[in-house]
Structure formats: C-alpha cells, structure tokens
Write a structure and sequence with these properties.
The longest helix has 22 residues. The chain is built from 11 helices and 13 strands. Helix 1 crosses helix 7 and helix 8 packs parallel to helix 11. The chain has a domain of 200 residues: 3-Layer(aba) Sandwich (Rossmann fold). It is globular, with a radius of gyration of 20 Å. By secondary structure, the protein is an alpha/beta fold. It starts with a strand and ends with a helix. This is Epimerase.
C-alpha cells in the first residue's frame, strides 16, 4: 500500500515535508487558495484542491480517498480552526490510527520574561493569535481522542530558510535593529521542521506536542548585525522598542520573551539539528545568494 499525505495548506514548511515524502514514493495531495497555484502543484505531481477560511474543499471525499497521513498548516481565524470547522466530520471518518500533524507555534506559551519553557509547561498565550492557537490545538487533540486519530502538534519557533531570512531582509533594505533589553526569540530552519515532522511520522506518539526550535534563542538585533556582517553592509541604526514606530503585527512579536527547550525532539524523535543556531543556518543561505548573483553576472 502506498502512503498518501494530504496537506491542508501547502505553505513554506508543509511543502518541504511534502516534497521529501514525494521523493520517497508517497502520493501527495493538498490545498491552496487559488487556481494558478493549483496548476503549479499539479505540474509538480501534487493533486491540488482549493481551500480557504470561507471555502471548504468542494470534493472532500475525493481529496481524502486513500489518505494515510494529514498535515495541517492552515492557521486559525476568527471562526476557529478552518479545517476542523469545515471538515472535522470528514476527518473523523478516517481510519483509526491515521496520523495527523498540526503545525502550531511557540506562541502558545506566551510571555515568560526570558525563562525557558518545555512542553510540560502550562499554555498561557498573551495575544489574540496565541489564544487562537491554543484553542485550535485543543480542538485537534480532542478530535484525535474522540475518533482514534493519531494527532501530534508541532510548536514552531520563528521560521526561516531559502528566500525567507535575515540576509534577504537586509538585501531588500527592510532590516531594522529594534532594541528591547533582555528580549530573545527562538528560531528554526525550515529543513529542521521537515526532519522533525518526518521523524514523528516514522515514530508516532499519539497526543504528543513538540517544540521545534534551534539551540540558540537570541536577540533579534544580533541576527541582523550578523547578516549585515556576512554581506559587508553596515547594520541599520539602533531603534528603541519603546519609541520605534511598528505595525501592530510587528509589535506583537515583541510581546513574548522566552527561551524554548527542544530536548523532547532530540530525546524522543532522535532529531539532530542540521542548523543548531542562526549562524549555521545563514551560511548555506549566504552561499545560495552568492550563487544567484554569480549566475546573473554570467547571463549579463
């Protein structure tokens, strides 16, 4: 029997998981929000379906036919988790033991004033988005318990990777050096997200939650300075968080200050991080940028 993964939301992280399983001979299906992206997915050998907060999958029976694993990356909205809202009953009808992975965030822990948190700690979200995530996580675990589905939650730190990293931000002229004393963020390279999810598929622990982050919670301004150094660019001027003009979304990232333990993914899933800190993670991304620039020079 061929394994089949269905992804509700084939975004930055889920797509890498799907690509790696596709390379192992798995069938892949999943959702996107528009027809143009659906055509691209189909060209890449992925069976596409349209799905959004207000748009359920039109033919969900066909979408879930033969599915052995489900990965959910669609974020919760005002009406709760959109996948459970529209298709909770459809998922409940899947065979017992079906693996379901939910991509959550470390925002479920809220602000800990720089202290370390593990999966054993109480969930105390500080903002609206964190509270929605906690509600969604609980809904997924409840669905699993009631219907015998093997649900796991992956609490992701700040995600970076190809095309989405501090080097690209600096090169685009969008980097800012916001200083909030004592503030640290945890991060995770997208490749380490993928290897953690794949490890869980191979060694499922129904009902488990996993923090997915690297070993080095660091001040955000340090990452910008390091990226500027790699590129030979002067770092932007320091800005005091208390007076910096930030959008509500940007400011919300500074609400929480904590260090996140990743011991469980190492001990229980055997994960060995490819990029244990942002310095290791930025190096191959820097090499990719150099390769792109050299390629353009050759074309010119």
């Amino acid at each position: 029997m061929t394994n089949k993964l269905f992804c509700f939301g084939l975004g930055f992280s889920a797509r890498l998981v799907a690509n790696q399983l596709q390379g192992e001979g798995w069938k892949i299906a999943g959702t996107t929000r528009n027809a143009d992206k659906a055509k691209q997915l189909e060209a890449d050998g992925i069976e596409p379906f349209i799905f959004g907060d207000d748009q359920p999958v039109a033919d969900i029976k066909t979408a879930l036919r033969g599915v052995t694993h489900v990965l959910v990356s669609a974020p919760p909205g005002g009406q709760g988790d959109p996948v459970i809202h529209h298709h909770g009953n459809d998922l409940a009808a899947l065979p017992e033991g079906t693996w379901i992975g939910y991509l959550s965030t470390t925002g479920v822990y809220g602000d800990r004033d720089g202290a370390e948190v593990s999966e054993e700690d109480e969930l105390l979200p500080s903002g609206k988005r964190g509270r929605r995530r906690v509600t969604a996580e609980k809904a997924w675990f409840d669905l699993g318990r009631r219907h015998g589905l093997c649900v796991q939650s992956f609490r992701l730190a700040g995600i970076y990777g190809p095309g989405r990293n501090a080097l690209e931000t600096v090169r685009a002229g969008r980097a800012r050096r916001i200083i909030k004393p004592g503030q640290v963020f945890s991060r995770i390279h997208v490749e380490d997200i993928a290897q953690t999810v794949l490890a869980s598929i191979k060694r499922p622990d129904c009902g488990a939650a996993y923090n997915v982050c690297d070993d080095d919670a660091a001040p955000p301004q340090d990452v910008i300075v390091y990226a500027c150094g790699m590129l030979g660019i002067d770092p932007p001027a320091e800005e005091d968080f208390a007076t910096a003009r930030l959008s509500p979304m940007a400011a919300s990232f500074y609400e929480d200050n904590k260090r996140v333990s990743n011991a469980r993914i190492k001990e229980e899933l055997g994960v060995k991080l490819r990029y244990p800190d942002y310095r290791a993670g930025l190096m191959p991304l820097y090499d990719e940028i150099l390769a792109r620039l050299e390629s353009r020079e050759e074309i010119d």
